[in-house]
Amino acid sequence: MTLAERTLGEICDEVGGIIRTGPFGSQLHESDYREDGLPVVMPRDITDGRISTASIARIGPEDEARLSQHKLTRGDIVYGRRGDIGRRALITARERGWLCGTGCLRLSLGDSILDPAFLYYYLGLPRVTAWISNQAIGATLPNLNTTILRSVPIAYPSPPVQKSIASILSAYDDLIENNTRRIKILEEMTQAIYREWFVHFRFPGHKKVKLVNSPLGPIPEGWEVRPIGEAIAVCGGATPSTKSAEYWEDGDVVWFSPSDLTAADAMFMLDSSRKITTLGLESCSARLFPAYSVMLTSRATIGVVSINTTPACTNQGFITCLPNDRVTAYHIYFWLRDNKEKIISLASGATFKEISKATFRQIPFLLPPQANAFTFAETLEPLGKHIEVLLQKNVNLRQTRDYLLPKLISGEVDVSDLDINVGDAAA
What we know:
- The chain is of the alpha+beta class.
- It has helices at residues 8-15, 61-66, 116-122, 126-135, 146-150, 159-198, 228-231, 258-264, 278-282, 329-338, 340-345, 357-361, 370-410; strands at residues 4-7, 18-21, 38-41, 46-47, 50-51, 57-59, 77-80, 88-90, 99-100, 104-108, 153-156, 211-212, 219-220, 224-227, 233-235, 253-256, 268-269, 274-276, 294-297, 305-308, 313-314, 318-322, 364-367.
- It has three domains: 4-156, DNA methylase specificity domains (Adenine-n6-DNA-methyltransferase TaqI, Chain A, domain 2), CATH 3.90.220.20; 157-199 and 370-420, Helix Hairpins; 224-367, DNA methylase specificity domains (Adenine-n6-DNA-methyltransferase TaqI, Chain A, domain 2, Alpha-Beta Complex), CATH 3.90.220.
- Helix content is 36%, strand content 18%.
- A five-stranded mixed sheet has the order 15-22-19-20-17, with helices on both faces. Strands 2-10-7-8 form a four-stranded antiparallel sheet. Strands 6-3-9 form a three-stranded mixed sheet.
- The longest helix is centred in the last third of the chain and has 41 residues, at 370-410.
């Protein structure tokens, strides 16, 4: 397979494209955002190559007209400028006309030389992301700019081959996105069941149980209100010395940091980005806790919750809740999510906010009879297992996609003679 070699800047100039930063902070202020209006894509909205609208900002018609030169087009690629500079997303028909926000960079090169989806995947090659990272400016927080992006070297095949490669890879992403939608639906179902039982008290047989007064208001008779620290055991975490290689090299102990949970944004954590050795675990106060415990981030970003599926430990930014026969992981998980604002309000600290284990242990917790707890766990278990299976499928799909990526783009796997139904990845 013959590959042409040029820089992104050279291609951009030939096609009259755009490599530009979003509006500066002086052009778009926090006070300009509103509940309704045109979505503005920020780095935080870029998740796994797609644009999430979960917390997307919006602007009104006046700001839309004033900043129209920053509107996105289908096939554009948006980068975050700071921190995780490999974070990027391909703009689809859904986001056409949205605004490239502050903190982002926009690539708009059309499709006459580079297929947008092919370029998106090409920029995800490990050697390309490493090259960009090495050029990034900033010792503490790497920064990406237009000069760096213009200098990125691109080796690309003919347009038909580009489209075939993009179609193969996007098929994996479509499966991942479909699984992600199913996971979201299942999580909403489990949340709804929790609230039926523990908020509205509409559990099986509830009509035969009268409500009695408690510190939390009316609750079913036979249920108790106790401090969470009396209902379950909790533990913290720690970090082995990073100066000691024997604590980290070839480690096989799952060790979570808050960034693992914020990046995954999932009910279950299947693995951690870093691992420590058994010697590293023994060197610090981190505790190995069993699978299906519930981890809560307790400092900086407070209130992110997830359930580990293998024995694990954490750094010092967590409070981990250990289920027992009467309090299940599902009960704890949804109780933590339901009480996130209360937990955040109890945090303190001059440099950064943190909720201590001592304060956390005093939060009132509603404890049902063991029979109710058992039935609740039985009800949620099939849904939870289905979520786990779908998460693992997504892991496998990403691994296969990432394995194929360099082989397809280098021509090691030749697609020129394959009969591929070429779609539009940015549709």
